[in-house]
Amino acid sequence: MAKSKCTPLKVTAHMLDGRFSSADGVIMLDSILYHAWFIKHAPHVLEGRYRPEDIGFVGLPLKQLEGNRWAASKGVYEQTDSVIEHYNKRPDFFAGDKLDYLGMDKGLISDSVGLYRAYRNPMLIRTVKDGIITFFAVGHKDEVLELLNLMVGMGKKVSMGYGVVTKWEVEDIDADYTTWHPKYGLMRPIEVEKSDKQYDAPIMQYGVKPPYWKPKNLRLCYVPI
Amino acid sequence: MKLRIEYTMTAPVSHIGETASTGSYFQTIKTKAGRLPIITANSVRGILRDNGAKCLLDAIGAKVGKEAFNVLFSGGNLNGTMKNDVAKAKAVREHFPLVSLLGGGLGDMIMAGKIAVGNLYPVCNETQEMLGIDYPDISWKNLIDEIEFTRADDGKDDQLAGYMDNPEEEKKAKASTQMRYSVQYMAQGTKFIQSLYIFPNATELEIGALFAAFAEWFKIPRLGGMASKGFGFFDAVTDFGISVKDGRVTVDDKAAELIEKYRNFVAVEGSEYLYLLGGKNGKK
Fold first, then answer.
1. Are B201 and A160 within 8 A, CB to CB?
2. How many angstroms separate the CA of residue B45 from the nearest CA in chain A?
3. From residue B163, how far is each of B155, B159, B168 by CA, in Å?
C-alpha cells in the first residue's frame, strides 16, 4: 500500500507543571521524535550497546528536506519565568546506615576535592504559561503521535522530573509553518550559506538536524532564539 | 509504564530549598499553577538508589570498595576519557539491573537510566488541575509554617558545668554553641503525589529492583530532613502494590513476585561481577 502523503501538522505538548530545563530555550520537534525513534526501533543504542555496524537510516515520519533534515519546527510557548535551579550530589560514605557496606578499613575519602567531590549543579529552568508548548511539522499524523506517546518529557533532566509531558496532541492544519510563522517568525535553524533569505535572528553555530548537540551537525545558522 | 504514589505525612516534613540568616525555607518552584512547595525528585532518586544498593549488598552479603560504593549509592561519576565500551555496557546492564534502571557514571562511560522520577506535589487547591484530583479545598499556604529550635550551651549551665574540668575557661570561650534557628515545614497530614515513568525498554528484573528498593525504603518511611527530630515520616499508597501504613509494609502478590525474581537473580549472581562497578576501569 502506498504511503499516505505528508500533511502540515500542529503538535501540542501538555506539560505536567509547565517547567523544563533548557539553556537556550529552543526545543526542536524533530529531536524529540528522533529520540522516540530510538526508543521504538533501536533501544539498545540508548542503553550504550551501540555498535558501528548499527549505523543505518533513521526514518522519522516527517517530510524530508535537503541534507537529511526534517520539516519540523521549534516549540513556541509563552515563558512566564526563568530561574537558575540546582541539583545536589553529595556522596555520603559515612552515613550510619551505609558505612558497613564500605569494604575499607583505613584511608581518607574527601567530598570537598577530587573524585568524590560533592557538587551543586546549576540549570536554567523555564516556566511556560498554561504548560503548553506548540510545534509545527509536515508529516504523517498517526505515526508522529505514536512516536510522541513514547516520550515522557522533553528538555534536559527528564529523569529528575523536568519537562514532563502528560499528553501529546497532533492535529491537521492548513499551512506549513516549519520554517516561518507569521506570528512567531523563524521556526527552525536555517543554514546561512544555503539560505536565499536573510532573517532577523542571531547568527551562530547551531545544529541543523538531530542530534542538535553533535558537533558534526553544527553549521553557521540563523537561530530562532 | 507510569507509577503513582500518594504520600500522607504522619509527621511534619522539612525539605530545605534556601536559607537566609538562621532561617531555612522549604523548597518552592514556580509552575504553571503558580509557586508551589515540592519535595524534589532528585532527593527521591537518592533515597531509591541508597535502598536499592542496600538490598543488593545485603542479598549477596558483600562489602565494596569506594569506587563501587560510589556507583551504587551515589550514581558514580566520570574521571577520565569517555569510552563507548559496548561490552562493559552490556555486562553492567545484564548483571546490575538497579544501575541499569537508575543510570550512572561508570568512570569512563555514562550509563543512561530507564526511569524518570517526578517531583512530589502537595495535594491542594493549586494543584487540583495539574494532578487531576478532587480533594478538599485547601491552599498549600495553609499547610506550611515555621518552627523555631534552640540549642543550649550547656557549658553555661551552672549545674552541668560542674562536670567540666575547667568551667571558668568554658565561660570565656569565643565560639558559642548556643543557637536559635527556624525551619519551614509542611504540616502533618499533608498529602503529596508523585509520578514515576518507567521507559518501555526496562526489563522485569529492573522493575523488580525498583520495587525491592521501595519495599526497603518503606521499612523506615521518611522523607526530607530532620528525621532525628521526628520529621518526615509518612504512610504511602501506590498503584503498583507496595504500601506502608503505621510503619507496616504490605506488598501484593504481583509486586512480591517481581521482587522475588530480582532477589533470586541477585543471589545467583553473588559478588562475582562487582568488579564491573569499580577498580581499574571496571576490569577484573
1. no
2. 8
3. 9, 8, 12
Residue A65 has pLDDT above 80, yes or no: yes
**Of residues B194, B209, B71, B6, the one with CA closest to residue A160:** B194
Q: Report yes or no on whether pTM surpasses 0.90.
A: no
Q: pLDDT digit string (tens) for B209-249? A: 999 999 999 999 999 999 999 999 999 999 999 999 999 99
In chain A, what are the domain boundaries?
A: 7-84+126-187, 86-121
> What torsion, rounded to 10 degrees, do the Cα atoms B259, B263, B266, B271 define?
130
- Domain assignment of residue B222, yes or no: yes
A 10 A CB-CB count for A192 gives: 14
Residue B159 lies in a domain: no
Is B282 within a domain? no
- State how far residue A20 is from chain B, nearest Cα, in angstroms: 10
Let me know: does B103 contact A159? Beta carbons within 8 Å: yes
Q: Which residues contact A5 (CB under 8 A, 6 or more apart)?
A: none
Selecting from B40, B66, B117 the residue whose C-beta is nearest the C-beta of A102 gives B66
Q: Is B39:B28 a contact under the CB 8 Å cutoff?
A: no
Among A87, A90, A164, beta carbon nearest to B116: A164
What value of ipTM does the predicted structure carry? 0.82
Which chain A residue has its CA at the smallest distance from B129's CA? A16
**CA neighbor of A160 nearest in space, from A39, A19, A27:** A19
Task: Give chain B's domain count.
Answer: 1
Q: Domain containing B116: what range?
A: 2-136+190-275
3-state secondary structure of B205: helix
